[in-house]
Automatic annotation (TrEMBL):
Gene3D superfamilies assigned to the protein according to its UniProt record, in alphabetical order: Immunoglobulins
EC annotation from Swiss-Prot or TrEMBL: 3.2.1.21
Catalytic activity: Hydrolysis of terminal, non-reducing beta-D-glucosyl residues with release of beta-D-glucose
UniProtKB keywords: Hydrolase
Protein name in UniProt: beta-glucosidase
Lineage: Eukaryota, Metazoa, Chordata, Craniata, Vertebrata
InterPro entries reported for this sequence: Cellulose_deg_GH3, Fn3-like, Ig-like_fold
Origin superkingdom: Eukaryota
Record flagged with keyword Hydrolase: yes
Domain (Fibronectin type III-like) ranges: 66-133
Gene Ontology molecular function terms on file: beta-glucosidase activity
Length: 161
């Protein structure tokens, strides 16, 4: 192998073409609704972790499980990065007609980019939360919420945090 960029080889680097069966693809026996995506803090110091909460509601008639997925998108980076990157997921059982509030941590190291070493960069990011990848085309409806946050500070090596 001569091309180590993985461009065109994994879902993270497909460019404009979506994979046939993206991560999380599948059908459910019920429907879910996502709401109240909250990121804290909205402006993050360069080495800090991001706290995330989202409410998942089972709006169908059957008890079921959902795989809640969080993806990160860099608005601008000094080096090539994936269109979005899976940073967390959790399988959650929710009774019919009930809801649950989920909490996640997105670690600073999950925002790091490779530029001869792992580096953290300031900038604007979008976090997606839902039952599938952002922009996924499926027959089963599933919501994907998004929220933006900023990272403030000076770029630095990850090991410097």
């Amino acid at each position: 192998i001569e091309n180590y960029t993985m461009e065109g080889w994994t879902y993270r680097y497909y460019g404009q073409e979506a994979p046939l069966y993206p991560f999380g693809y599948g059908l459910s026996y019920t429907t879910f609704r996502y709401r109240d995506l909250v990121l804290s803090p909205q402006v993050l110091p360069i080495c800090a972790n991001l706290s995330v909460s989202v409410v998942l509601e089972n709006t169908g008639l059957r008890d079921s499980e959902e795989v809640v997925q969080l993806y990160l998108h860099w608005e601008q980076s000094s080096v090539p990065v994936p269109r979005w990157q899976l940073v967390a997921f959790r399988r959650v059982a929710v009774l019919a007609g009930r809801e649950t509030k989920l909490f996640f941590q997105v670690l600073a190291e999950q925002r790091a980019v490779w530029a001869q070493d792992w580096r953290l960069e300031p900038g604007t990011f979008t976090l997606f939360a839902g039952g599938q990848q952002p922009g996924q085309k499926t027959r089963a409806p599933s919501e994907v919420l998004s929220a933006r946050f900023s990272v403030a500070g000076t770029a630095r090596p990850l090991r410097g945090c």
